[in-house]
Amino acid sequence: MPHNLKLKELICMIRNCKTAAEERNVVSKECAQIRTAFKNEVLEYRTRNVAKILYLYMLGYPAHFGQLEVLKLISSSQFLDKRLGYLGAMLLLDEQSDLQLLLTNCLKSDLNSRFHYVTCTALCTLGNICSTDMARDLAVEVENLLKSHNRTIVKKAALCACRLVRKSPELVENFLFLVEDLLDERYHGLMLTGVTLLIEMCLVSKEALQFSYKLLGKIIRILKMLLTCGYSPENEIGGITDPFLQVKLIQLLGVLGHVNPQASSELNSVLTQVSSHTQSFKNAGNAVLYETVRAIFKVKADDELKIFAINILGRFLSGNDKNIRYIALNSLIRCVHVDIKAVQRHRDTIIECLKDLDVSIRRRALELLFVLINRDNIGFSFFLYWSMCFFWEDLITLYSSLTHDILQFLHVCESEFKPYICTQLVRACLKDAPSGRWYVDTVLQCLKLAGSYFEPELVCEVIRSFGSLSELHSYISRNLFLLLEDDISAQPVVQISVWCIGEFGEVLPTPSVKDEPHVTPTEETIIDLLESILQSSTTSSLSREYLLTALAKLSARFPATTRRIRAIMEPFTSHIDVELQQRSLEYVSLFEQHALRDAILERMPLQCAEESRLGKEEASLTYKKKVSEATSDLLALFGSDTGRPAFSTVHNEETSATPGRQPTANSVGGLLSLFDEPTALSAADAGINVYRHEGIEIRVQSLSSSTEESTFLARISNAGPFAAESFVMQIAVPKSMNLKLYPASSNYIPANTLETVTQKFQIFNASKQTLRLRIKVSYVLNGKRICDIQDVNELS
Predict the structure, then answer these.
(1) How far is CA 99 from the centre of its chain?
(2) CA distance linking residue 590 with residue 202, whole number of Å
(3) Are 328 and 340 contacting, i.e. CB atoms less than 8 angstroms apart?
């Protein structure tokens, strides 16, 4: 292989490789020759070799040995070498690189270059890989470039300043007063970068928020000018005057209106004007309308305006663009809490989305339908239907049954949807069913359509609910008996049916009553069916365990079949499956102890509503105990010898939190946090920053304070490129104080978002000492577990 192989030739060689091993062989040989060239200082082919390294890096091969050569290209006097060097720096270097100091010196030199192409390239690199130290070292140069007369340099400098402010918020004061000059520019490109920089500063600084309130009138005036101005060929896209600038201006208004309710009244009129004057025929108009909808839900808008925003999302659903429809469904899921009736008016359109060819649209439409389910629309009585036909025809569609539509989709949907549909539908029916008979019919319909897709947890929930409906035991057992006669291949159906027959199968031989299936099997018929299922090759081990237990219970219900049931069980006393062997041995031994057998095999006690409520309270107390034990180690950091929690209990009355549970579409906390801002706080309640690491930031604000009791709210935001999962924050106080820690609104923090997670806590300071905290946070970021401890010595 020649040493001066060109980049195009290398690309062709790699593409012509027929196997992965052949490709790795070509790459390893080329990397070895490139290393040799770097070692021998072959300057003639340095640029070509660096270009090949970047190509190999984009293919996923290691290219760290080219970092120093990249810096040598940046130090070159030739622009082509600098351009390739800076491209390599953006790909191969990061904030943790050991070459940060050398790169900072190169950037400082090129930012002061007289050649504006070199300056712009350096600004692009700084805006992509800037670290906190680099931001402080080069802030003066970027500030000077913002005062340049070259528009291109000013745009690049403003975007670079966004990165600097994000990395080092104390630099806001360097750029704050330069933003106003950018807003006064007539060139829309400079205005766009100025608004972007102002948004970034508002998210990290209360001083920037106070400054932005003074510019609110100018911002609204600029937006109205864009709405009312005539045709502008250089700025118009799709019939919309500069939609990029409009989107950024509306986003800024949402930030300002969210933290300052007094300003929301001023924003209602301009947001209404934007919504009314923007056409949604093309993507440019859709983008402006979507950002307007987000801003409406951020600010304290009127109810009529919020309903108007929901109707805009409903219009998006009627479009042909799949991306717009997906965005509309996703947004409607998160704003159902505003006005569920307004969203239900678009139910027919949402149901039509279930027929879309795009699987992601069908999934989102399904999630939205489950969010819409409540007591008013889950079931529908025919008496109410005929009443509405005569009096309120418009309400028929609004209050018709969503369950029927979901069951129709369950009949034709792909297999990947069926487990989710069964789980969500059964749980929704258990919560909001109009009657027990209706609930049973719905579950039976699910078992007929998708019985094989019931998850084990759902099987247990259905069994528990069927057992509690004592007045419907005969109806349930007869229907399940018919299901077993038709098909025994669906193991979840077998398990539910066998359990119910074993528990209350004595009602089957009795005559059926009105509205029950006309099936009256004899005792021998029931045993024959269970025996055939037990001997079937398709029956799983778990189902056999259910069958053995059911047969044992039926031996107490049907005394005449005891000998036969014992004969069926005895072969399993030597079964290869240990669990089946143990169960059969235990049950066979019970046949010799009649009095004891009848007591052991009697019906399971019913779980009434009071017992269920007590069970939930017991689970809540267990969770509190686990949280208390988990925080004892953290509290010991303050010198507690006994590890006694300082009243660190989790308040669980308003939020029923489960450890490790992800937020769902039905989570009210997740809905309320749709358009929340992470760190954009008003001047009065901005709080203090107590933690910042890789984009994760925690700010604590005081809600109420007295000499002995203080209430605080922690706001956790994520400005980084990766979502934070399994987020847990624990707080410890000195032994002289007591702490009451509430659950967080979510344990999932999306990346690069304006959403925020909140967690409330109270401190009881009877000794009136200075408040001190020790905060321990743990979360998973980009697949890596991060655990940090931070001391907070002042909360005022």
Answers:
(1) 37
(2) 74
(3) no
Residues pairing with 774 in the sheet: 732, 791
CA 556 to chain centre: 51
Q: Which helix (H) or strand (E) holds 710?
A: strand 709-718
Q: Given a cut of 50, is residue 450 above it in pLDDT?
A: yes
Cα separation of 581 and 89, whole Å?
66
27 CB contacts (<8 Å, ≥6 apart)? 14, 56, 59, 61
Return the pLDDT at 686. 56
Q: In this structure, how many other beta carbons lie within 10 angstroms of the beta carbon of residue 758?
A: 17
Condensed to tens digits (0 to 9), the pLDDT of residues 432-444 reads 888 889 999 999 9
> Which segments within 590-695 are labelled E, that is strand?
649-650, 688-693
Q: Which residues contact residue 773 at a Cβ distance below 8 angstroms, ignoring those fewer than 6 apart? A: 690, 731, 732, 733, 791, 792, 795
Stretch 65-91: mean pLDDT, rounded?
Answer: 92
Over 70: is that where the pLDDT of 236 sits?
A: yes
* pTM higher than 0.85: no
CB 406 within 8 A of CB 367: no
Q: What are phi and psi of 734, to 5 degrees?
A: -60, 165
DSSP string of 407-459, one letter each residue: HHHHHHS-TTTHHHHHHHHHHHHHHH-S-HHHHHHHHHHHHHHHGGG--HHHH
Whether residue 123 contacts residue 156, with contact meaning beta carbons closer than 8 Å, is answered with yes
Query: What is the distance between the alpha carbons of residues 490 and 536, in angstroms, rounded to a whole number?
Result: 12
Find residue 729's DSSP bridge partners. Answer: 777
The contacts found for 35-42 with CB under 8 angstroms, 24 or more apart, are 35/65, 36/3, 37/3, 38/65, 38/66, 38/68, 38/69, 42/3
| Spatial distance between the Cα atoms of 257 and 262, rounded to a whole number of angstroms | 8
Give the C-alpha separation, 382 to 741, whole Å: 49
Nearest CA to 591 out of 548, 555, 561 is that of 555
